[in-house]
């Protein structure tokens, strides 16, 4: 058996590497790429494929070896052979795989001729580009690159598109090569000083774990978009799997929460502090006993996950703080659902939940709640859409009024923000705002609680931990169906007991806690000591001199001190930490690695230093590239050159993933899946009365060319330069067909909501598509529409969340939850709208 797979990562130290050696010490190995040429016979393999007509099965030939196992004859082939069979490469196996067309003249799946009918790109052009890409990779030793971004990232099936591109660069030897591979550009953030940031952000210096959740799932349920599903899963699965496990996507999310694949908060239909008291009264004392108590109550259903009844008043969120985000008007897919169900505000939602799919695992309330939140607080320096809908707006400082840090994957630096002026009027820096909130909260808590409270926290099976081994062979076992027992941290979420000293929140926030010194710090499954840095920070920052549990701890009362602590505790900005991190990985891999950082072991970035001059970050195992010797960062170079395994099931990048849900959806191999085809309105529900000529178009919301998200779009110079308000771009021929002229006011609507905007008519927009550049808020120059009897919405009014079940897999190697790493995407491309000319412009001013 070759080394490097997941079991070696969490087994005996020193065996997790990519050396071509047998794990038992039996010497070198030379794995065979293909069975072709040594095969015993050729078998026909059934493979799924998908197109606009639905899901189908094709047969492709593969070379196999026969082996005897358990008294049975079994057939073995290689993943390489599976991939070539999937792509239809002619290998002389007498299955006509390489022909463009079958016997009936129809194009064969995955051939250049087949794609031509889908993309419109000439088959000869595809062949030419493919050969040029591969030839360049050969000639340059891997310097062929695919640059991609929101053009594929925001589609429902973006994951299989990404996998197809990764296949391409793996096949041509471009991964882990400077100038080669794939480069992803959607939101260019890269948290370079990761360890220091997460230690302070998640209070790991004092306690743990924090409740962290993927936002898409949270808002899918909090805004009741799950109630309006128009697309069942039946058409998305392979015929080889038969029926899907569930028809409704929300049921998969409930299963994911139940099995510990994804986090889900609020967590139970019982207050977590009261639940601890229940467990204690039942005789549970240790963490294991309390976990068993919770598991038992979940099994007998005397306790339930909140996600199983998200519209029950005891289960939905009541207070929401929005910080550094225009959630309501910019990032929230399904704007009108947010207004109706989360905020209880006037809205333009045209959808009807009476005609939608009904889930099996979720309680259905006859009447959906409207206005779930009791309080929404917004920290912002602009009165953008979220601030306008908030109960309380706390004015925040801008980037030139505070001390802060920023980093990106566009270049290898950490940026400091320095105040040029003090925060204006009542505004404060983010840290100062939360510090004062913590002070007020602690004062209130001291009157509310006599002592610290014990809190039961459920957390998912985590990536970069032994939790990745929770599902042998990717087989789903659901304890709620009697397929196994509920075991915390194995077949269900972990159950933790966390002491909450609410009266001490303020003291803890302004001080770096002792766990930094007493316990290892780390990231990505490795850890090391930061005790030396903890003592160093006492000298750098001073200490908390107030009486209490934080006395003598490093002082974090100012944003500048927090930034210094982050830089000191991170392996990309502290050379000693980087060397220790590499030494930790050396123990796990039995590879020599610390030389990647030794040349910079005496460097420790300070805020003053990075203000005075740019400094490239230090090579760290927190990331997979190398900056040693001034090299430019490129991902996976340390995997390829230093034989560090990828953090996957096999320790390699994978063409094939065998999880049961991927088999169900026909996605064990990269494949083509068409876009979803939701109609603007359900055939059994009402739609607005037709008014003039109409056209149905695919609705896109690309990143804006004239703003940074919702900033600057509404500044007077930009409004003066371009139309003075919201705009939608149309193809000139589509516009002519509907009698729409450039600069006309138009209505753009579907079941999710309606937008009113000026038409920008251009031949540069493809036919059949409408562009509304994202983050166009609704607070300037937006007339009303008779469709909703209110003003037009934002760019997200026609959108809604579509969650994909395969994004919910957890507890299985790389398919395991990690904060800001994994979970359903917030895609919004797979939808259509009706566009027509607005008959009368009404500013609703009477």
Automatic annotation (TrEMBL):
> Which CDD domains has this protein been placed in?
MopB_CT_Nitrate-R-NarG-like
Q: Where is the Molybdopterin oxidoreductase domain?
A: 134-439
Q: Which UniProt keywords apply?
A: 4Fe-4S, Electron transport, Iron, Iron-sulfur, Metal-binding, Molybdenum, Nitrate assimilation, Oxidoreductase, Transport
Q: Which GO terms describe its cellular component?
A: membrane; nitrate reductase complex
Cofactor names from the entry are: Mo-bis(molybdopterin guanine dinucleotide); [4Fe-4S] cluster
What Pfam families would the database entry show? Molybdopterin, Molydop_binding
Give the GO terms filed under biological process for this record.
nitrate assimilation
Please state every residue range assigned to the domain named Molybdopterin dinucleotide-binding: 697-812
Example GO molecular function? metal ion binding
The protein's matches in PANTHER family, at most eight in alphabetical order, are given as: RESPIRATORY NITRATE REDUCTASE (PTHR43105), RESPIRATORY NITRATE REDUCTASE 2 ALPHA CHAIN (PTHR43105:SF2)
Name-wise, this protein is Nitrate reductase subunit alpha
Organism of this sequence = Cohnella ginsengisoli
């Amino acid at each position: 058996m070759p080394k490097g797979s997941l079991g070696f990562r969490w087994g005996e130290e020193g065996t997790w590497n990519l050396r071509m050696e047998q794990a038992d010490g039996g010497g070198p190995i030379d794995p065979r790429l293909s069975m072709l040429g040594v095969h015993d016979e050729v078998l026909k393999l059934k493979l799924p494929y998908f197109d606009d007509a639905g899901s189908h099965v094709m047969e492709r030939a593969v070379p196999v070896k026969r082996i005897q196992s358990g008294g049975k004859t079994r057939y073995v082939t290689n993943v390489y052979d599976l991939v070539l069979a999937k792509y239809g490469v002619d290998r002389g196996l007498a299955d006509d795989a390489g022909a463009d067309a079958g016997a009936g003249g129809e194009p064969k799946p995955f051939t250049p001729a087949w794609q031509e009918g889908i993309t419109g790109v000439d088959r000869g052009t595809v062949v030419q580009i493919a050969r040029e890409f591969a030839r360049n990779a050969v000639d340059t030793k891997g310097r062929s690159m695919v640059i991609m971004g929101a053009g594929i990232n925001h589609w429902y099936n973006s994951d299989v598109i990404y996998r197809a591109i990764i296949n391409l660069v793996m096949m041509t030897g471009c991964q882990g090569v400077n100038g080669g591979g794939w480069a992803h550009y959607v939101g260019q953030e890269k948290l370079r000083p990761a360890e220091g940031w997460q230690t302070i952000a998640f209070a790991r210096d004092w306690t743990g774990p924090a409740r962290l959740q993927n936002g898409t799932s949270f808002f899918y349920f909090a805004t009741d978009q799950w109630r309006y599903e128009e697309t069942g899963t039946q058409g998305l699965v392979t015929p080889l799997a038969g029926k899907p496990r569930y028809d409704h996507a929300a049921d998969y999310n409930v299963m994911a929460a139940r099995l510990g694949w994804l986090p889900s908060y609020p967590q139970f239909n019982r207050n977590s502090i009261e639940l601890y008291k229940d467990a204690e009264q039942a005789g549970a004392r240790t963490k294991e006993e309390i976990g068993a108590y919770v598991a038992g109550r979940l099994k007998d259903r005397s306790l339930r996950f909140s996600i199983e009844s998200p519209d029950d008043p005891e289960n939905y969120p009541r207070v929401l703080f929005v910080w550094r985000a225009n959630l309501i008007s910019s990032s929230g897919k399904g704007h009108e659902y947010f207004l109706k169900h989360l905020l209880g505000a006037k809205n333009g939602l045209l959808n009807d939940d009476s005609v939608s799919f009904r889930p099996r695992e979720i309680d259905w309330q006859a009447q959906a709640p409207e206005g779930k939140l009791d309080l929404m607080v917004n920290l912002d320096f602009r009165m953008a859409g979220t601030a306008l809908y908030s109960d309380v707006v706390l004015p925040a400082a801008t980037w030139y009024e505070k001390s802060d840090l920023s980093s990106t994957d566009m270049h290898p630096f950490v940026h400091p923000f320095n105040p040029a002026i003090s925060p204006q009027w009542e505004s404060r820096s983010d840290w100062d705002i939360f510090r004062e909130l913590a002070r007020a909260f602690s004062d209130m808590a001291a009157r509310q609680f006599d002592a610290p409270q014990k809190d039961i926290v459920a957390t998912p099976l985590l990536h970069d931990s032994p939790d990745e081994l929770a599902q042998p062979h990717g087989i789903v076992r659901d304890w709620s169906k009697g397929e196994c027992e509920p075991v915390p941290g194995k077949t269900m979420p972990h159950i933790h007991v966390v002491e909450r000293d609410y009266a001490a929140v303020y003291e803890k926030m302004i001080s770096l806690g002792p766990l930094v010194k007493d316990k290892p710090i780390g990231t990505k499954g490795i850890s090391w000591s930061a005790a030396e840095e903890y003592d160093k920070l006492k000298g750098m920052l001073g200490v908390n001199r107030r009486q209490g549990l934080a006395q003598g701890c490093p002082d974090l009362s100012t944003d500048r001190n927090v930034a210094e602590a982050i830089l000191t505790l991170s392996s990309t900005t502290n050379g000693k930490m980087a060397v220790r991190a590499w030494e930790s990985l050396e123990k796990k891999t039995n590879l020599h690695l610390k030389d990647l950082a030794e040349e910079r072991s005496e460097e420790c970035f300070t805020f003053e230093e990075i203000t005075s001059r740019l400094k490239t970050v230090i090579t760290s195992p927190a990331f997979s590239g190398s900056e040693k010797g001034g090299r430019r960062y490129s991902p996976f170079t340390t995997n390829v050159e230093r034989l560090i395994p990828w953090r996957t099931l096999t320790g390699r990048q994978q063409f094939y993933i065998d999880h049961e849900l991927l088999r169900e959806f026909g996605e064990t191999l990269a494949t083509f899946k068409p876009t979803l085809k939701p109609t603007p309105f359900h055939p059994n529900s009402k739609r607005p009365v037709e008014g003039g000529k109409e056209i149905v178009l695919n609705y896109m919301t690309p990143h804006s060319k004239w703003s940074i998200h919702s900033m600057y779009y509404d500044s007077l110079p930009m409004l003066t330069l371009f139309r003075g308000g919201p705009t939608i771009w149309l193809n000139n021929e589509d516009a002519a067909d509907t009698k729409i002229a450039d600069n006309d006011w138009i209505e753009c609507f579907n079941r999710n909501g309606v937008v009113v905007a000026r038409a920008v008519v251009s031949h540069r927009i493809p036919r059949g598509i409408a562009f509304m550049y994202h983050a166009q808020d609704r607070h300037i120059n937006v007339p009303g529409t008779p469709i909703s009897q209110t003003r037009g919405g934002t760019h997200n009014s026609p959108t809604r969340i579509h969650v994909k079940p395969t994004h919910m897999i957890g507890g299985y190697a790389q398919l395991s939850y990690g904060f800001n790493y994994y979970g359903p995407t917030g895609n919004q491309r797979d939808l259509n709208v009706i566009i027509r000319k607005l008959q009368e412009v009404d500013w609703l001013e009477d």
